[in-house]
Amino acid sequence: MYPNLYYAFRDLFGVELPFLKIFQTFGFFVAVAFLAAAYVLTIELRRRERLGWMAGYPETIEVGKPASTAELIWNGVLGFLLGFKVIGAALAWDTVSRNLQGFLLSGEGNWPAGIVLGALFAWLKYRDKKKKALPAPEKKTITVMPHQRVPDFTVMAAVAGLIGAKIFHNLENWGDFVQDPIGSLLSFSGLTFYGGLIVAAIVIIRYANKKHINTFHLIDSAAPALMLAYGVGRMGCQFAGDGDWGIPNPHPNPFSWLPDWAWAYNYPHNVINEGIPIPGCEGNYCRMLEVPVYPTPLYEIIACLLLFALLWSIRKRIRVPGVIFGIYLVLNGIERFFIEKIRVNTKYDIFGFHPTQAEIISFLMVIGGAVFIWYCRKAYAAKTTN
């Protein structure tokens, strides 16, 4: 396992770069997942724009204005945070590297570096705006195409998704949240995918409606990107060993063609330091699971990348708006429902049944996706016949 990129580069390339300890493996793959999804979404939105299915919307902007007070403040705050935390961490790396997350969430940092960098960022924004300033600011009308909104979608998905993932995780683990609410909210661990998906979807669809973007074509365009992002994100779970693994699997491997680590794995050097000590290992991440478990993130990586390939291959054949997204809901729901059978998760007690939160949501996704496909096909047929 590679808790952070330092260990990955050391094991894969034989080089030791201490500054890479700041980059957590799970966070790295989450960032890659967002970038990959944004790229795929942009490609599909452009295709639908060329077909005339999606159109741009005019917006009025004002050019030639000097920097506003709000712009200077926000740039100053950003510069201050970078100087206070990043430079502060670099100058005290030997101490900070032992507990980077604790340092980032603490009040510790380098005040002079924060003040200097904050002032520099504010001044750079002021100078940039002054160069572009006009004697009298002008208003211009421009047409913004849907694919040009992808950076906005990405930022909103990241922020709203993180909030939703934390909310749903704490609802699923209410006892832990009650014991330490502040710690649970500020912790970097404990994220629930479906919580992030639901909250991010609500925020983005509301934004798209305000910008007059066709919702059905937008969600169809996003479906393959979502499946890809999920698969790439699971790489972070697998390579970091973040505890999002399966139930114990003490059974012998029944498949001669399947490597033993793909059947049952003990996640050595996992990032959460779970399990028993590894003999002869010294350092921060020297534990492995006593009983090997099903490596469920690996199974989901394979399944979701294959499902992404399927969605990507059929997207040009299906012309009914909304159907691709409905298929995504059904496929993702089925995949997650069955993987939950061998995953470690909190279970509820509902009328004698003991489902997990993900099983409930995935079941609803399958039903909802099937109903949504039926509705979209019916609405499209009625529209074309009229």
UniProtKB/TrEMBL annotation:
<dbReference type="InterPro" id="IPR001640">
    <property type="entry name" value="Lgt"/>
</dbReference>
<feature type="transmembrane region" description="Helical">
    <location>
        <begin position="188"/>
        <end position="208"/>
    </location>
</feature>
<keyword id="KW-0449">Lipoprotein</keyword>
<keyword id="KW-0812">Transmembrane</keyword>
<feature type="transmembrane region" description="Helical">
    <location>
        <begin position="320"/>
        <end position="339"/>
    </location>
</feature>
<feature type="transmembrane region" description="Helical">
    <location>
        <begin position="20"/>
        <end position="41"/>
    </location>
</feature>
<keyword id="KW-0472">Membrane</keyword>
<dbReference type="Pfam" id="PF01790">
    <property type="entry name" value="LGT"/>
</dbReference>
<comment type="similarity">
    <text>Belongs to the Lgt family.</text>
</comment>
<keyword id="KW-0808">Transferase</keyword>
<keyword id="KW-1003">Cell membrane</keyword>
<protein>
    <submittedName>
        <fullName>Prolipoprotein diacylglyceryl transferase</fullName>
    </submittedName>
</protein>
<feature type="transmembrane region" description="Helical">
    <location>
        <begin position="109"/>
        <end position="126"/>
    </location>
</feature>
<dbReference type="GO" id="GO:0008961">
    <property type="term" value="F:phosphatidylglycerol-prolipoprotein diacylglyceryl transferase activity"/>
</dbReference>
<dbReference type="GO" id="GO:0042158">
    <property type="term" value="P:lipoprotein biosynthetic process"/>
</dbReference>
<dbReference type="GO" id="GO:0005886">
    <property type="term" value="C:plasma membrane"/>
</dbReference>
<feature type="transmembrane region" description="Helical">
    <location>
        <begin position="297"/>
        <end position="314"/>
    </location>
</feature>
<feature type="transmembrane region" description="Helical">
    <location>
        <begin position="360"/>
        <end position="380"/>
    </location>
</feature>
<feature type="transmembrane region" description="Helical">
    <location>
        <begin position="72"/>
        <end position="93"/>
    </location>
</feature>
<feature type="transmembrane region" description="Helical">
    <location>
        <begin position="150"/>
        <end position="168"/>
    </location>
</feature>
<keyword id="KW-1133">Transmembrane helix</keyword>
